[in-house]
């Protein structure tokens, strides 16, 4: 079995992001473009630059309220998300709250959506996590749940979710130093990939691409 990585790229200009993307895809199956790090008007420029590489890209436009940098309004963000999906990337990352509240956006997005949810403060109890997984799976076959581990058992609760995933392609792990190993173990439990960085981490506890290579058997 080969395990896949997704290099998270958070550069602040389209030229830099495109360069980082070319480098990342030499060594990684997937890359995440953190398009919220760009000026909104540069997003289409970046998507054009990415060209056929987009088939390996997860496009993310995270709002500030969910830990991202997108500066505009929710309406502007939803319009850009719908535009991004027209370029047909591998997946468009859309937050659970966004997709749940916007049937209009659901109609405009293709089927290739990664429904995501983050908890930057902690890790809820198992019952809540399971209910959330079920609710998220109603919107896509690709679901991502990322919490913050304060102690090792928090990571274990995230990893236990794989036994409830069924046909859902689940990416679930915990951020933070206490969660670091869950980023590796999720691969062995069925996660389609794990997030890594090349130049600088986009989240706490992320492995570097080279570093994780030393752990993967
Ligand atoms: O959701 C995720 C996962 C992540 O937060 C991480 O912890 O590696 C990094 C983000 O860029 C990405 O959108």
From TrEMBL:
Pfam families recorded: DHquinase_I (PF01487)
InterPro entries, sorted: Aldolase_TIM (IPR013785), DHquinase_I (IPR001381), Type-I_3-dehydroquinase (IPR050146)
Gene Ontology molecular functions: 3-dehydroquinate dehydratase activity
Domain of life: Archaea
Residues given in the record as 3-dehydroquinate binding sites: 8, 32-34, 62, 183, 202, 206
Gene Ontology biological process terms in this record: 3,4-dihydroxybenzoate biosynthetic process; amino acid biosynthetic process; aromatic amino acid family biosynthetic process; chorismate biosynthetic process
Statement: the UniProt record of this protein carries the keyword Amino-acid biosynthesis: yes
Catalytic activity: 3-dehydroquinate = 3-dehydroshikimate + H2O
Keywords, alphabetical: Amino-acid biosynthesis, Aromatic amino acid biosynthesis, Lyase, Schiff base
Pathway: Metabolic intermediate biosynthesis; chorismate biosynthesis; chorismate from D-erythrose 4-phosphate and phosphoenolpyruvate: step 3/7
EC identifiers of the protein: 4.2.1.10
Active site (catalytic residues): 118, 144
Complex and partners: Homodimer.
Similarity section: Belongs to the type-I 3-dehydroquinase family.
Known role: Involved in the third step of the chorismate pathway, which leads to the biosynthesis of aromatic amino acids. Catalyzes the cis-dehydration of 3-dehydroquinate (DHQ) and introduces the first double bond of the aromatic ring to yield 3-dehydroshikimate.
Protein name, entry field: 3-dehydroquinate dehydratase
Gene name linked to the record: aroD
